[in-house]
Amino acid sequence: YTEHLVRMPLGGMLHAIPISESTPPLYYILAWGWTRVFGSSEFGIRSLSALAGILTVLVVYAVGARLAGRKAGLIAGALVALAPLMVWSSQEARSYALATLLSTVTLLCFVSFLDGRDRRWLAGWAVSSGLGLATHYFVIFVVGPEAVWLLGRYRRDRRVVAAVAFVLVVVAALAPLALAQR
C-alpha cells in the first residue's frame, strides 16, 4: 500500500493517509520525497527502510559504547544487525525501521544528556522524540518513560520542562489524527 500512496501527488497522499493508514504521516512524506529521487521501483521504495535499519545499528553501537564501552557497543550493534525482526522491518516499505531508528536516537540523546547535561543532547532528544512520534504512535512507549524520568530528575530545569513540553505539543497535534485513525 505504501507504493500506492507514494505514487500519488503529495496532497492526495496526505488526504489518503488518515483514511487508509493507522500511523502518522512522517514516514510517508519522507518516502514520497525519497521515491522522487530514487524511483518507485522495489529498490527505490524499500531502500529508505534499509537505510534506517543500517543507521539503527550504528546508533545502537553508540548507545552501547556510551553505556558500557566499545566492546558492548559492538556486541549490541551486531545483535541488532542480525535480529530477524530488524532485518524484516528494514526490508518493508513501512514506518517500522524509521520508528526504530528514531526511538534509538531518543535513547542515545537521553543517556548522553543524563551523562553530561549538555543542552544539545536535550534538544536532540526533543527533536528525535517529536519526529519519532510523527512516524509511529508506538514510539510513545520509549519517549514516555524517558520524559517521565527527565521530569522526575530535573523538574526544576526549565530546559528539561521546555523539551518535554515540546514533545507534549507534538502528541497533542497528533491526537486528532490518531483518534480519526482508530
Protein model, in words:
The protein has 182 residues and is an all-alpha fold. 82% of the residues lie in helices and 0% in strands. The protein is built from ten helices and no strands.
Summarize the structure.
The chain is mainly alpha-helical. The protein has ten helices and no strands.
- What is the helix content? over 70%
Strand residue percentage: under 5%
The total strand number stands at 0
Largest sheet data: none
The H/E string reads HHHHHHHHHH
Return residue spans where pLDDT drops below 50 for at least 5 consecutive residues. none
Structural class: mainly alpha
Fold topology:
Elements: H1 2-6, H2 10-20, H3 26-38, H4 42-68, H5 70-82, H6 84-89, H7 96-116, H8 119-133, H9 140-154, H10 158-181
